[in-house]
Amino acid sequence: MEKVLKSVGRHIVAELWGCNRELLDDVKAVQKFMNEAAQVSGATVLNSTFHTFQPHGVSGAVIIAESHLSIHTWSEISLASVDIYTCGERADPWLAFKYLVKAFQAKYYSVFEIKRGMFEADKNFDITHLYVKQNTLVKKA
Fold it and tell me: In the annotation, is 75 catalytic?
């Protein structure tokens, strides 16, 4: 039986540097960009919440049917830290990332992708037969 490597989700972790400082401190702009990034990725937006810190910075999250997007900004150093986590095949987290780079006018970025919930499966594997016990993936009989 052919084994394939699968994952339940894709998690992009990014630092956007040299961003527009005014945008990073504008909670309405940050919320708008994050919601639009989710939509651009093909995700289904369910809810979002954002908060402004004093003297500067914004944190927030967009909850999507496929998981979430989150951000924390440091306008004093022109930095936005972003997480984009999607599950399933519908949403593409890289589309959201590319949108945010442009929206915040980032000059530089560092980014990597983590495959979440990795498992080895038979070619026609059904994920509903899995459970985790002591960090070991076990297939039910």
Answer: no
